[in-house]
């Protein structure tokens, strides 16, 4: 794990512009239906949990289909900035760096760039820990597809056109910068097989999964839907 003190050769100074509100740990997914606000805050009130269950209850269910034909390239090359129809597209910065800027604090950019993040502090909602990150150890922070692309493929994306698949892969609603090990452990699991290690964030994670599924008209498995409801008191 990196440290926040000091700088790498070629780094510019720190900046918090466009990132976190002072002292914040993120935004509730119920207050962030576009995914354009930073972080992922816990859902704790009874009223919000009721709203969460109502959202999840609307999802249709079906069995997970075969993985035949799936490849990451079916969703476009990684972190495209040229996908129309999603927030932050065509801003001159790739999707990964957009997410690092959005969720990072004490962000430092490569000299001469307002895009390429080389150092930051990230509050990882999945583990509840702060990560002092540097680009020299890039894999310590990975971008999670909340609804994994392989999962989406098996639940209907295999029949989508290329443009819709590219939107799913680059839509900030479906993306979270998180601990690399946590993301690696998740792989292409649905909620019935994997949930964030931090229990306080599990309802929020279920809501975000449901938001993505609803937006892209994806079904989820019955086991996943049941698990998601349970995280929000259902």
What does this protein look like?
By secondary structure, the chain is α+β, with helices and mostly antiparallel strands. A hairpin with a 6-residue loop joins strand 2 (104-110) and strand 3 (117-124). Strands 1-2-3-4 form a 4-stranded antiparallel β-sheet. The chain has helices spanning 46-57, 95-103, 149-154, 162-170, 180-186, 202-215, 222-231, and strands at residues 11-15, 104-110, 117-124, 129-134, 141-145, 175-179. The model is unreliable at 1-23 (pLDDT under 50). The radius of gyration is 17 Å and the shape is globular. The protein contains 7 helices and 6 strands, in the order βααββββααβααα.
Unreliable sequence segments: 1-23
Strand content: 15-25%
* Strands, count: 6
- The value of Rg in angstroms is 17 Å
Separation of the first and last Cα atoms: 38 Å
> Total helix count?
7
Q: What's this, in brief?
A:
This protein is α+β, with helices and mostly antiparallel strands and 234 residues long.
Search tags:
two-stranded antiparallel sheet, 234 residues, 6 strands, globular, 7 helices
What are the SSEs and their pairings?
Layout: E1 11-15, H1 46-57, H2 95-103, E2 104-110, E3 117-124, E4 129-134, E5 141-145, H3 149-154, H4 162-170, E6 175-179, H5 180-186, H6 202-215, H7 222-231
Helix pairs in contact: 1-6, 6-7
């Amino acid at each position: 794990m990196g440290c926040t003190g000091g700088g790498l050769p070629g780094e510019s100074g720190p900046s918090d512009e466009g990132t976190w509100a002072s002292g914040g740990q993120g935004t509730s997914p119920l207050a962030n239906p576009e995914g354009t606000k930073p972080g992922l805050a816990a859902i704790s009130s009874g009223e919000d949990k009721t709203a969460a269950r109502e959202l999840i209850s609307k999802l249709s269910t079906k069995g997970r289909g075969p993985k035949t034909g799936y490849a990451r390239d079916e969703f476009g090359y990684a972190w495209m900035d040229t996908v129309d129809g999603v927030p932050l597209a065509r801003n001159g910065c790739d999707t990964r760096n957009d997410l690092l800027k959005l969720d990072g604090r004490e962000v430092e950019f490569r000299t001469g760039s307002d895009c390429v993040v080389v150092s930051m502090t990230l509050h990882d909602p999945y583990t509840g820990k702060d990560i002092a990150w540097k680009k020299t150890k890039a894999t310590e922070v990975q971008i999670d597809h909340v609804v994994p692309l392989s999962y989406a493929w098996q639940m209907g994306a295999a029949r989508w056109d290329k443009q819709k698949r590219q939107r799913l892969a680059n839509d900030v609603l479906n993306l979270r910068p998180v601990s690399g090990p946590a993301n690696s452990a998740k792989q292409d699991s649905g909620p019935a097989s994997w949930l964030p290690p931090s229990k306080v964030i599990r309802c929020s994670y279920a809501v975000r999964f449901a938001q993505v599924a609803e937006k892209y008209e994806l079904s989820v498995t019955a086991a996943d839907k049941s698990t998601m409801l349970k995280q929000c008191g259902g």
